[in-house]
């Protein structure tokens, strides 16, 4: 296989991992107003991702670095054309990270509520804008002959892009609430199961509309792997329904697993719909960026391939070990005991 095509799929793998892992982080953050009845329950919710949120976030850093090295033309067009949207995502991620670290520094209720609001906003903004960005990449954006984006932020806020953003927002929210139900006990877990049931129904409807639109787009544009896109969209729909049913039956682990599978299938459906382009032009298809004309030299890709072969398995092992160490539920009694020791 040509190395450029190999790296197209490696970058796709990295974004799949990022959306699955940081996706439930976003969902947990967005669930705070619904599940945090008091400070103990809010701490219980936040602590479910406390040991892993920053590790999950590194996936997007690695994905961005690989995109820069493997597909510099794609990186340049994407980050210049989507500059404002990506800047808002970056600021929101910084806001969320600061909030996790500073929330517990004072006992003031006003202090904590302020940072809780920042966590919600810092989770919701990326969850929405990542969907808008990827939907527009798949659909195509106006590019000139030099592969430069000729639109604006408003260009990205089209019906398909906004539906993509709403889909990722709801998918991540439901995914995160499943995770809270899996990782907590007592009232928080019970509230999370009920919330996931309600949110899951809305998510099924919105995600179905977006996936159907994506499949129709892939066939209308004559994309090479449109049939595979349709198959993956169908798998995503089945898994999403299975996650909702599992949650209704009180099977938190299965609900979370099926939810993760939904995100994997949905993101892969977008990736297959994009192939063989990396950024199609909506004005003139001849101006599109493809895997071949956007990639680095074979020498660069060869070095990257050896580095990935050595280091990627180590990173995956370390992350798996981290999740194993912090696999236990965050109980209310544990939070109360820790608070009593502090005071």
UniProtKB/TrEMBL annotation:
GO biological process, one term: aerobic electron transport chain
TM region(s), chain numbering: 6-32, 77-98, 119-139, 159-181, 201-219, 225-245, 257-279, 299-326
Record localization: Cell membrane
Enzyme Commission number(s): 1.10.3.10
Membrane topology value: Multi-pass membrane protein
A Gene Ontology term for the protein's cellular component: plasma membrane
Keywords, comma-separated and alphabetical: Cell membrane, Electron transport, Heme, Iron, Membrane, Metal-binding, Oxidoreductase, Transmembrane, Transmembrane helix, Transport
A Pfam family assignment: Cyt_bd_oxida_II
Molecular function via GO: electron transfer activity; metal ion binding; oxidoreductase activity, acting on diphenols and related substances as donors, oxygen as acceptor
The organism's place on the tree of life at top rank: Bacteria
Annotated InterPro entries: Cyt-d_oxidase_su2
Cross-referenced NCBIfam families: cydB
Family listed: Belongs to the cytochrome ubiquinol oxidase subunit 2 family.
Descriptive protein name: Cytochrome bd-I ubiquinol oxidase subunit 2
Organism: Microbacterium terrae
High-level lineage: Bacteria, Bacillati, Actinomycetota, Actinomycetes, Micrococcales
């Amino acid at each position: 296989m040509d190395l450029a095509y190999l790296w197209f799929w490696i970058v796709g793998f990295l974004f799949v991992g990022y959306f699955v892992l940081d996706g439930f982080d976003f969902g947990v953050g967005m669930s705070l107003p619904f599940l945090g009845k008091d400070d103990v329950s809010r701490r219980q919710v936040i602590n479910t991702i406390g040991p892993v949120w920053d590790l999950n976030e590194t996936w997007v850093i690695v994905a961005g670095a690989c995109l820069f090295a493997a597909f510099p033309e794609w990186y340049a067009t994407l980050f210049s054309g989507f500059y404002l949207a990506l800047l808002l995502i970056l600021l929101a991620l910084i806001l969320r990270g600061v909030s996790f670290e500073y929330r517990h520094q004072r006992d003031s209720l006003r202090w904590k509520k302020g940072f809780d609001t920042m966590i919600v906003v810092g989770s919701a903004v990326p969850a929405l804008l990542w969907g808008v960005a990827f939907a527009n990449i798949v659909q195509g954006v106006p590019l000139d002959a030099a592969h430069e984006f000729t639109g604006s932020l408003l260009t990205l806020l089209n019906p398909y892009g906004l539906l993509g953003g709403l889909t990722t927002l709801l998918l991540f929210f439901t995914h995160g609430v499943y995770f809270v139900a899996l990782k907590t006990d007592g009232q928080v877990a019970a509230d999370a199961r009920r919330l996931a049931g309600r949110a899951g129904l809305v998510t099924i409807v919105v995600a179905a509309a977006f996936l159907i639109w994506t499949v129709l787009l892939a066939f209308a544009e004559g994309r090479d792997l449109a049939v595979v896109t349709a198959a993956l969209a169908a798998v995503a729909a089945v898994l999403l329904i299975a996650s909702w049913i599992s949650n209704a039956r009180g099977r938190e682990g299965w609900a979370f697993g099926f939810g993760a599978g939904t995100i994997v299938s949905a993101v892969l459906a977008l990736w297959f719909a994009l192939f063989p382009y990396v950024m199609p032009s909506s004005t003139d298809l001849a101006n599109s960026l493809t895997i071949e004309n956007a990639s680095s030299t074979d020498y660069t890709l060869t070095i990257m391939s050896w580095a990935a072969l050595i280091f990627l398995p180590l990173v995956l092992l370390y992350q798996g070990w981290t999740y194993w160490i912090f696999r236990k539920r965050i109980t209310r009694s544990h939070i109360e005991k820790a608070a009593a020791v502090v005071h």
